[in-house]
Amino acid sequence: MRDATRGLIILALALSGAGRSTTSMLAQGIYRIEIVVERNEGPNWREIDPRLVLDRDDRLRFRFKSSFDGYLYVTYQSSSGKYDILFPGESQKNRIQANKEYSLPQSAGSFRIADPPGQEIVYFLLSPTELSTSPKAGGSPTIGDRSRAISSSVPRCDDTALRANGSCIDVTAGPKPVNDPATLPSEWAQIPNLRSRGLTLGVEQNTSIISSAESVTAPVVYEVRLSHR
């Protein structure tokens, strides 16, 4: 297990197609994160493609695992602009252990997709050391403007990304890097030099994979977009 002080990586999902397979690219990474999106279907939970276009009232949760220790903070922004904290809860610790799987929200929790149509955004912040002030959900004029822009964008199926079963896939969804701190929850935007850094992005059998061969010694952040109609 690598020492946590040598850095963290971030998750983000995308298809990387340039000449090498996703598996061969990920194999070059020193650090690795896996995130699975699950949807409730009656009494069961089923893994889904993170880019799948969802429906109103779908209930979701994440499974999260990393190859290294660290501190995790997760905030959820609905398409209406409302913020909620998915991790940690009020009585929970946010230190994560290498190779241990976590459910987000924890316990038997889940979150529900609601109107208006658009994209929900789940922000993941990881740090090699505990932050002096735990990030909390917040708002700002910048975030408000961004919320309206996202909510007005109705997801569209991409014909080239349709699966064999005809699922509606939105290629703008899934994990993405965050390059502009001004788009983050206001308390997070104040963290110095917070960026998405040196990532290799991929997806394997509905699992979002992020790996990096570079050490990251400062907090890093990324977002997971979930499209719904």
How does this model look, in words?
The protein has three helices and 13 strands, in the order H-E-E-E-E-E-E-E-E-E-H-E-H-E-E-E. With 229 residues, it is mainly beta. The chain has one domain (4-228). Strands 1, 2, 3, 7, 8, 11 and 12 form a seven-stranded antiparallel beta sheet that branches. Strands 4, 5, 6, 9, 10 and 13 form a six-stranded antiparallel beta sheet that branches. A hairpin with a 2-residue loop joins strand 11 (200-204) and strand 12 (207-212). The chain is globular. The model is unreliable at 1-29 and 137-149 (pLDDT under 50).
Brief rundown of the structure:
This protein has 229 residues and is mainly beta. It is built from 3 helices and 13 strands.
**Helical content band:** under 10%
Structural class: mainly beta
- Number of discrete domains: 1
Strand content: 25-35%
Radius of gyration: 17 Å
Could you report the average pLDDT, rounded to the nearest whole number? 74
Distance between the termini: 42 Å
The total count of helices amounts to 3
Cα shape:
globular
Q: Point out poorly predicted stretches.
A: 1-29, 137-149
Give the ordered list of helices and strands. Answer: HEEEEEEEEEHEHEEE
The main sheet comes to:
7 strands, antiparallel
Q: Count the strands?
A: 13
What are the salient characteristics of this protein?
229 residues, mainly beta, 3 helices, globular, disordered N terminus
Blueprint (SSEs and pairs):
Layout (H helix, E strand, L loop, with lengths): L21 H5 L4 E11 L2 E5 L10 E8 L3 E8 L5 E5 L7 E2 L5 E3 L6 E2 L5 E10 L13 H11 L22 E4 L8 H4 L10 E5 L2 E6 L7 E9 L1
Antiparallel strand pairs: 1-2, 1-3, 1-12, 3-7, 3-8, 4-5, 4-6, 4-9, 9-13, 10-13, 11-12
